[in-house]
Amino acid sequence: MIEDKPTGLADAVIARMSDCTEPRFKEVMASLVRHLHAFVNEVDLTPEEWMAAIEFLTATGQACNERRQEFILLSDTLGVSMAVVGLDQARSVRADAQIARRATEATVQGPFYWEGAPDMPLGCDLSAADVAGEPAYYTGEVTDTEERPLAGALLDIWSGDGEGVYDMQVAGKGMTLRGRLRTDADGRYRFWSIRPTEYPVPTDGPVGVMLKRMGRHPMRPGHIHMKVSAEGHVPLTTHLFGRGGRYLDSDAVFGVRNSLIVDYERHEPGLAPDGRDLKQPYYTVRYAFRLSPRS
Ligand code: BEZ
Ligand code: FE
Fold first, then answer.
1. Which residue among 60, 67, 68, 76 is best mutated to probe the pocket of ligand 1, counting the most ligand atoms within 8 A of its Cβ?
2. Residues 36 and 91 grouped into a single domain
C-alpha cells in the first residue's frame, strides 16, 4: 500500500531498495528520489511539462557523439559541475589544513578535453601555422603547497583558437592547440600558444535552446585549459583567464575564480624572452600552479 501523501510515494520508492548492497549508491539514490519528488510537488508539475522534460533529456543524449558531450554542457550551464568541483577541492584541502598555501583553484573541465594530446618538448609552440590567434608565451612553475618545485610535473593543455573555436567543433579536424609537457628539474614550464578570446558554448543543441528560454547569454570569458599532475599530489583541472576580458563576471558555466585571472602582457614585435623573433605583437603570461600533496 502506498500512502496518498506525496512524501509517502518517495518513501515507498526508497523502501524498495532494502536489498541494495551498495551503501553509497543507496544513499545517493534515496536522496535523489526524495529531491525529485519534492521538486515535482513544489512546482506542481503537469504531465505536459514532465513529457517536455523527458523529450529535452532525450534530445540531450541524442546530441552526444564522440566529439560532443551535451550532458556535460547541461551540467556546466546549470552550475552543477562547479558545485562538484568545489566539493572535491574542499575535500582534498580539508585534510591538508596546515599547509603554507592553498592549492591552485580548480574549475570545470568542460566538454572539449580530448584524451591523448601529443607529448611536446618544453618551449614548444602548440599553435600550428594556420591557427587564428595572437601568439602568447606562457611560463611559470609547478610547486607543492610549500612552494617546493615539482620536477617532471605533467601539464596537459588545450584551448580554442583566437576566434574561440575548438578543434573538436570542426568536423574531421585533428588535434590542434593541444599538448602535454613536463616541467624541468626546477619545476618550470614554458610554451607558446595563442591569447584566447571569449566564445559561446555550443548553442545549436538542446542546451542552447534552454539557455535562450532562460534569458541567458552563452558566453565564456577567454581562457586556456590545463590539467596539472605530479606523482604523490592531487591532480588539478583548471583554466587561466585573461584579466580585463569580457564575461569574467557572467561566465555561462560559472567557472571563473579570481585567483585564476592573469595578465596578458603585450609586447611589440621583436625578440621574445626565448630568443624567438616575432614579426607581430605578442603576449607573455606567468603563472605558478600549486598542487596539494596527497594525504
Ligand atoms: C570550455 O571551456 O571549453 C567549456 C566549458 C563548459 C562548457 C562549454 C565549454
Ligand atoms: Fe574552454
1. 76
2. no
pLDDT in tens, 105-136: 999 999 899 999 999 999 999 997 678 899 99
pLDDT in tens, 77-111: 999 999 999 999 888 765 655 666 789 999 999 98
Asked whether residue 108 is assigned to any structural domain, the reply reads yes
d(CA 159, CA 163): 11
Q: Taking a C-beta distance cutoff of 8 angstroms, is the pair 203, 66 a contact?
A: no
CB-based pocket (< 6 A), ligand 1: 73, 76, 108, 110-112, 201, 220, 253
Cell representation of residue 158? 588545450
Give the domain range for residue 32: 1-45
For residue 114 the three cell numbers come to: 580530448
Residues 35 and 80 reside in one and the same domain: no
52 in a structural domain: no
pTM over 0.85: yes
